[in-house]
Design a protein that fits this description.
It contains eleven helices and 14 strands. By secondary structure, the chain is of the alpha/beta class. The protein has one domain: Ribokinase (UDP-N-acetylmuramoyl-L-alanine:D-glutamate ligase).
């Protein structure tokens, strides 16, 4: 385990909190549960010991008792800004298998599985596929004024997928203070050819940029087809490390400093609910990088964090692992890492 005293001042996690309704690959439906990328990243981090300050915007109707379950683990919720209006935080995901998820037509998916449609999803409208807005804040966009003063004393931050403006502003704000490690996971709203000219500025202060293969391919549509070549281009914009969560080959890691290309496998488990696995990976990567300053070790810890959560459902499932399991998985994966 990673020893990290005063974690709430060392680490910050910024992201989104949701009210999740999930149809897992296996297992019962999860109706109106605590969720969102911030929650899963927090558990991925905490699996290895650390806690963090939490940074997010929620509406006045969001169940803060859910966030309190994280504060009971030692997380600081001073950065969870409650705005004086209601925000629709509902998120629906239907998992067909480990790699296939649907976000539209919840009525159809409940019907296909012979399940009653929950009242909590009445009137639900999933977010559209349109690109991010370059100038207008979204309801969940994090404002500079949302950041508590003591969060600026942190030394590392992970920024979950939020929106373009949040990803543009937050690295600069924290970089100007004491943060020396900035990890960011891509948002699909700007992983689009229309945002190509914005990427160099967006990534200029990033330590590690994490993105799934599908978003990377969408960004480079018509420009490039090789994932390693894509990673080289993004690394040229500033990130020390670019990580691609591939669809079939685990995690690709490019180290810009020495040019090394690493393949870190996914730990083989039965996937029952993939919700939040990418966010848990990022949380584990942050814990690992700040403990060892080794991107391969960090990616191993991220892969283990992702593997634990998918075996069951719910934000906190991964914390029930047997003592020693995560270290055993890390050692097993270490033997399978490839330098290519």
């Amino acid at each position: 385990m990673v020893e990290t005293p005063d974690d709430h001042l060392r680490f910050i996690l910024a992201g989104c909190l949701n009210r999740d309704t999930i149809l897992p690959v296996n297992g019962p439906p999860q109706i109106d549960r605590f969720g969102g990328n911030l929650a899963y990243a927090a558990i991925g981090l905490n699996l290895w010991g650390p806690t963090a300050g939490l940074l997010a915007r929620v509406g006045q109707d969001y169940p803060l008792n859910w966030v309190a379950d994280l504060t009971a683990l030692g997380f600081d919720q001073a950065g969870v800004k409650v705005v004086n209006r209601e925000i629709d935080h509902r998120r629906f995901i239907a998992h067909e298998d480990a790699a296939t998820a649907y976000y539209q037509n919840p009525i159809q998916h409940f019907s296909n599985r012979g399940l009653n449609f929950p009242r909590s999803l009445l009137g639900y409208q999933p977010p559209g596929p349109s690109p991010s807005n370059r100038t207008a804040h979204q309801e969940v966009s994090i404002q500079i004024s949302d950041i508590p003063a003591h969060y600026l004393e942190a030394s590392a931050i992970h920024i979950c997928p939020i929106d373009y403006l949040s990803h543009l502003v937050l690295p600069s704000v924290f970089y100007q203070h004491q943060v020396s490690t900035i990890i960011m996971a891509s948002h699909p709203g700007y992983m689009d050819p229309a945002f190509w000219e914005e990427l160099p500025v967006l990534l200029s202060e990033i330590t590690a940029f994490i993105t799934p293969e599908a978003e990377m391919r969408n960004l480079f549509l018509g420009r490039q087809t090789d994932l390693w070549a894509m990673a080289e281009v993004l690394a040229g914009f500033g990130p020390e490390f670019v990580l691609i969560q591939t669809e079939n080959h685990g995690y690709y890691l490019l180290d810009r400093g020495n040019g090394n290309r690493w393949v870190i496998p996914q730990y083989p488990v039965q996937v029952n609910d993939p919700t939040g696995s990418r966010d848990a990976f990022a949380g584990g990567f942050l814990a690992g990088y700040r403990a060892h300053y080794d991107p391969v070790e960090a990616a191993l810890m991220g892969s283990v964090a992702a593997s634990v959560g998918v075996e069951g459902s719910g934000v906190f499932f991964g914390l029930d692992v047997m003592p020693g399991l995560i270290d055993a998985r890390r050692e097993a994966l270490r033997q399978l890492v490839r330098l290519i």
